[in-house]
């Protein structure tokens, strides 16, 4: 606690003033946490003084409701470039990162119990620091207080580290081994990303550490609905569902099943909870699985787009799914229910194609910012010939006015030569498992093609253990 108070003093967080009468005063509290090593031993005890932000009112006490964070796809792409180029990966931590910016609002917070006026600083300067820059041949990924640096020259990487250390209190963690709850292991093929410790903690909290494993996370042909008896503890359901969402960072094979249960977080039924427990049983059998990034010389973008037409029994909406490869590495994926009802399977597939195209266009622009132009146009594979015909044939415009925006968006990129859309048979459509429950042989085949494989070693590195379980 003394270290936390000293950090608040050093950064001049607030002015001590009499309690105002006509302003909302935000309470505060202490949060204590025991940080452990991977083997379960105590690393250190940590205390944080936090404001009770739930007592603030949007539009009165604050305006912004989100902060920019580095996207998971950006992390995958940067790591893929680094491992393919043989660049070093360095990890840093910014101490008290939340105290290094400026407030434009005037906020009043209560003095915490147990401390006198003399122990508090007399100046105000507090905010949430998030920054993400990529400059020259040094790439910097920053997520609040977690930072990864890579680049062509190890000496050049030390320059931003030195400059940052002059401005902030930094903790040098050495070579990248743990980032945002993801364990990073170097192997002969490249980098192996996993969340083994996170998965084990999740199973332990669910009291399923001894559960019988199962080979697939979702039943073939199953479609969840709102029919059924409500689950008695929706807060527990939401907690596990959110935790499973974070596990998809390194286990994308969970994407469809997790997305399916998350659609009912507002009012889960007992059937939904049984489905959640099935996913946890699958996790039990795959705790040592993760995502393999390979050393590859290819910088081509290849995407798969698919849709399950009218799969939702309640709304008759379709489910879109896509996955994108950068060279040999799987870098971006999505499983999501469409926002509108599609009147045909072709329309559902075309909407999914438009969503995939938007993600591909974003990645192309990101690679341009990284000064890595693509050697050839991006390619999207789709298993619906009607959707492909609509994408390349301008004659269909008058018959598809209801999807005109999607149509023009995809059509424009195809016309200027920056995108190719081609057919793939359904048995080779890897995105199929992102739109529906598939058979065990098909699921295992697709999982292997996505490079979701078991780790060659079960040793774990220490680090800042997952924050999503609370």
TrEMBL record:
Domain annotation Reverse transcriptase Ty1/copia-type: ranges: 11-116, 123-218
SUPFAM superfamilies per record: DNA/RNA polymerases
Name the record gives this protein: Reverse transcriptase Ty1/copia-type domain-containing protein
